[in-house]
Amino acid sequence: ANRLRTRLLYIVVVLTLAPIALFWAVRDPVQILSIAGIITATHMPVVVFLTLYINRTRLPAEFRPGPVWSLIMIGVGLFYGFYAGFFYYDLFRGG
Question: What is the pTM of this model?
Answer without folding.
Answer: 0.66
